[in-house]
Design brief:
alpha+beta, 12-stranded mixed sheet, two-stranded antiparallel ribbon, 6 helices, globular, Carbonic_anhydrase_a-class_CS
Length: 275
């Protein structure tokens, strides 16, 4: 082979190699179905256009999250019963960090209906706001009713967290138990870690008051009919724990809070009860 021909062939081979890698990198990035980037073609403003089954994200009238002002107050004569219990769980990196129980981790009872705990996950910053104040983090406890005849089968309990400005190193105890496992899935989308037995009661705050309203899932398909319970007590999280949650996920999900949605004259109640 002539030297000039060899050089040309080498250049073409390099171009092919880099071109192929570039396409593959783009395919990996585009593998995500949605993101939280403002102005992105897959961002929150476009979720309802990405799939027909996600249309509720733009057409729904009872979407979440929302701002929670003190509009109406309803007092409860009976505390809501919970029967949470320890069970085996797995930590997953799904573009956000979640803990999923592999069996019966107990239930929450709302108006006499049982809602079984499925998983918890975190959003940074918070998705809900209270009187216009957004916090550093929000934890969601997701429950499902086993009764297929129940109209609203999903119930989510939300807890808000903030970094204590006087002690930014003060950690959340529940997250502290997961630090090593979260560190092991940094940047590894779809990675899983078996945690062993995790007790959901370690999340509870013992607050006497919480907001309740009817809303939706805060990620596609944005399904409505979700019973939302948002605790009014703001818990403490350390700056390093927030940083770890952000570091663990891919860059498009470092801030994975959906923008606030219109309230549309929905009833919002503030309950006083002991969990």
């Amino acid at each position: 082979m002539k030297k000039s021909t060899y050089i040309l062939a080498s250049i073409l081979a390099l171009l092919f190699l880099f071109g192929t890698n570039s396409v593959n990198a783009q395919e990996v990035e585009d593998d995500r179905e949605f993101d939280y980037i403002k102005g992105s073609p897959k961002g929150p403003g476009k979720w309802g256009d990405l799939k027909p089954e996600w249309a509720e994200c733009k057409n729904g009238r009872m979407q979440s999250p929302i701002d929670l002002p003190l509009l109406k107050v309803r007092f409860t004569s009976q505390p809501e019963r919970t029967t949470y219990k320890p069970f085996n769980a797995t930590l997953k990196n799904k573009g956000y960090i979640s803990v999923q129980w592999k069996g019966d981790a107990g239930s929450r009872f709302i108006n006499g209906t049982e809602y079984r705990l499925q998983q918890v996950h975190w959003h940074t910053p918070s998705e809900h706001t209270i009187n216009g104040i957004r916090y550093d983090m929000e934890l969601h406890m997701v429950h499902e009713s086993p009764d297929v005849n129940v109209q609203n089968r999903t119930a989510v309990v939300g807890f808000l967290y903030q970094i204590d400005p006087t002690d930014p190193c003060h950690p959340d105890p529940f997250l502290s138990m997961l630090n090593a496992s979260i560190s092991s899935v940094i940047g590894k989308k779809d990675a899983e870690v078996h945690l062993g037995v995790i007790n959901p009661n370690d999340i509870q705050s013992g607050s006497l008051s919480y907001y309740r309203y009817m809303g939706s899932l805060t990620t596609p398909p944005c399904t409505e009919g979700v019973i939302w319970t948002v605790n009014t007590k703001v818990k403490t999280v350390s700056r390093s724990q927030i940083d770890l949650l952000k570091e663990a996920v891919l860059c498009y999900a470092e801030e994975n809070a959906r923008p606030l949605q219109p309230r549309n004259n929905r009833d919002i109640f503030l309950y006083y009860s002991r969990f």
